[in-house]
Amino acid sequence: MTKPLEGIRIIDFTHVQAGPACTQLLAWFGADVIKVERPGSGDVTRNQLRDIPDADALYFTMLNSNKKSLTLDTKKPEGKEVLEKLIRESDVLVENFGPGALDRMGFSWERLNELNPKMIVASVKGFSDGHHYDDLKVYENVAQCAGGAASTTGFWDGPPTISAAALGDSNTGMHLAIGILTALLGRDKTGKGQKVAVSMQDSVLNLCRVKLRDQQRLERVGYLEEYPQYPHGEFSDVVPRGGNAGGGGQPGWVLKCKGWETDPNAYIYFTIQGHAWEPICKALGKPEWIDDPAYKTAEARQPHIFEIFKTIEGWLADKTKFEAVDILRKFDIPCAPVLTMKELANDPSLRASGTIVEVPHKKRGSYLTVGSPIKFSDLKPEVTASPLLGEHTEEVLASLGYSKQDIFNLREVKAV
Ligand code: CAO
């Protein structure tokens, strides 16, 4: 099967997580992704948090599948020359260096555009160009704080909290992938490349849009009725942390199931959808609540919503999280067990759909990684192992017209 991005060559000048997540996605869909890495060391994640001595760490292997690795010292004149050739023959360059690093290397947007006017140059930075913090280097948790996620995550009586989901890193990479694909479509029309820039702050904020909604509602009416602080607590002039409350119009909470005393994940998420009140009452064996004025409407329930959640926890006390969901699903109640990484890793449905895949690796043996979360009717992305450092150096240089002697010479000066 021809893959949709086959024939698109991408120079992957990325490291750590945000950039690699983007280029990995494009590689799954068929792009020829050449990861350019510093000779000798490569992407820092190759040896961060290693679980097997001398083998690439999972942090690297899980973000760099389906790619080639070319080692190149792009600060040396010989390395720069190779990079220039590669730029002339590529469609996209993706980078997520610290601010100004590419310019200092001699590859400003103007220079790249001069070398290949059709090339799309895609960058991740912590903050967008011109922002008063645009000189800052940024990692995941910094972005979560700068993008509004931390101040709105966690419990009201605790500190701002970081989410485990990579809202700053992988999420920004996904935004960048959308930008690159858009620019590629644009190039089909105009014949011209362009610069695509995504900041981690903007990408986090884009996912926190309902909190920006809430800020405006708060300023207008002084309270937020779906937050646990309503109606008994106080609101200040900023969106508070709402614990596990639902962010939409339906209240929900994480509720204890059988075994919670010893199992920290014996919980489900339970949602009280307004129009599902009758089935909820039936599922819980509380038919008397259906027409009781104290329970019948969402407005009537809100002042004592935690008492309702407590009653539901009583019903859950003799059911495991899986048993509970099996009952509630029959009543069309939006809910799910709180799943652990162990449960997800062994979930047969996720294996069958290719969302979690096992990949053989030359040095590690096989490892688990995520596959494409995007499913197509005509494409089943196949995940292949991440490359060893410099594994494809010769192959890529040969494709650029370098002879065996040229490659030997480049090795002599440690440019590759
Ligand atoms: N050959 C020679 N030099 C190379 C090279 C190569 N193949 N690849 C990279 N380099 C050099 C760069 O030119 C740069 O050198 P200078 O600083 O001297 O100009 C240096 O290596 C990389 O610098 P950096 O600032 O990117 O790296 P860092 O470890 O200090 O910072 C990070 C890492 C992630 C904080 C920073 O890159 C950053 O802020 N990136 C943008 C935001 C981002 O993507 N963050 C998410 C990371 S995922 O958690």
UniProtKB/TrEMBL annotation:
Keywords: Transferase. InterPro entries: CoA-transferase_III_domain, CoA-Trfase_fam_III, CoA-Trfase_III_dom3_sf, CoA-Trfase_III_dom_1_sf, Formyl_CoA_transfer. It catalyses: formyl-CoA + oxalate = oxalyl-CoA + formate. The active site is at 169 (nucleophile). GO terms for molecular function: formyl-CoA transferase activity. Gene3D superfamilies: Crotonobetainyl-coa:carnitine coa-transferase, domain 1, formyl-coa transferase, domain 3. Pathway: Metabolic intermediate degradation; oxalate degradation; CO(2) and formate from oxalate: step 1/2. One of its GO terms (biological process) is oxalate catabolic process. It holds the Pfam family CoA_transf_3. Substrate binds at residues 248-250. Its EC number is 2.8.3.16. It is an enzyme of class 2 (transferase). CoA binds at residues 15-18, 38, 72-75, 96-98, 104, 137-140. Belongs to the CoA-transferase III family. Frc subfamily. HAMAP family: Formyl_CoA_transfer. Involved in the catabolism of oxalate and in the adapatation to low pH via the induction of the oxalate-dependent acid tolerance response (ATR). Catalyzes the transfer of the CoA moiety from formyl-CoA to oxalate. Homodimer. This is Formyl-CoA:oxalate CoA-transferase.
